[in-house]
Amino acid sequence: MSTETELFDLELKVLLEAVYLRYHYDFRHYAVSSLRRRMRHAMSRHGLERLSDLQHRVLHDPAFFAEAMQYFTVQVSEMFRDPGYFAALREHAVPVLKTYPSIKVWVAGCSTGEEVWSMAILLEEEGLLDRAVIYATDINPKALEAAESGVFALDRMALFSRNYQAAGGRHSLSDYFTTGYGGAVFDRRLKKQVVFADHSLATDAVFSEVHLVSCRNVLIYFNRELQDRAVGLFHDSLVRRGFLGLGAKESLQFGAHAADFEACSAQQRLYRRTAA
C-alpha cells in the first residue's frame, strides 16, 4: 500500500469517527476499499482536493452531509434482482409462511425500494400480503423517501419485467403499475402493509418475531465485524426456523453465526434459522 493511500485511509478513519460523533451515523466498520472509492468520487464531484476538505464541509454543513449520504451508502438495486432468489422464496419459504396466521417480513437495507415492491408483489400473488407486515429499513432518508414513493424510471421497466417473469411471476408486471410523474407508479395498495423506517444495522436493535429477513447485497459493504453483528441481529429477530435471504455474493460460511443457520437453497443464498 502506498504512503498516499495510507494517509488517505488515516484521514478516512478520522472522517468516519467525526460523522459518528456529529450525526450518529456509524460507517466505521464499512469495507474500507468501497468507502475509499466512494469518497474519491464525492471529492471529484464537488471539486475537493483533499479528504480533509470533504470532512470540513460535512461537519460544518448539515445540508451538505444530507447530500453526501448518497456517497456513504450504496443505492444500487433492481426489481426481482437475481430472479432465482425470488423463485426460491416461492418454492421454499412461501409454503411455510402460509402456515402462519400472520407474518412479518424485514427487508433490511432496502435502498430505493425495488426489493420492497418486489416482495409485496410476490406476497400478493401468493395470497399472503393481507396478513403480512413488511418492515422496509435503511439509514438513508432520501432512499427511504424514494422507496416509499414507488416511482421508478420507465426505461427500467423492461429489465424489471424480464426479472419478474424469470422469478415466477404469475401475471404481467405492468398489471401493478401505471405511468405518471415521468415514470412507472406502482399500485398504492401494494404498500398498505409496508412500514418504512430508519434503521442502522451498525447501531440499532432487532425487530422481534420476524418470519423472513431479506438483506441482499448489503453485507458486502461491511467488514467482518459488522457482518457478524448484522447476521446476529437477523438471527435474534427471526422466529424459530425463520428464513434469511442474502445476496448472490454473500455467505454465512465463515461468519460467527454459520452454525446458527442451515441452507435450504445454498445456490440462491436462502437459509433457515436452526432449531437449536
Automatic annotation (TrEMBL):
Pfam families the UniProt entry points to: CheR, CheR_N
A Gene Ontology biological process term: methylation
Domain CheR-type methyltransferase stretches: 1-252
InterPro entries (alphabetical): Bact_Chemotaxis_MeTrfase, CheR_C, CheR_MeTrfase, CheR_N, SAM-dependent_MTases_sf
GO molecular function: S-adenosylmethionine-dependent methyltransferase activity
Key words of the record: Methyltransferase, Transferase
The organism's place on the tree of life at top rank: Bacteria
Keyword Transferase found: yes
Protein name from the UniProt record: Protein-glutamate O-methyltransferase CheR
Species: Luteibacter pinisoli
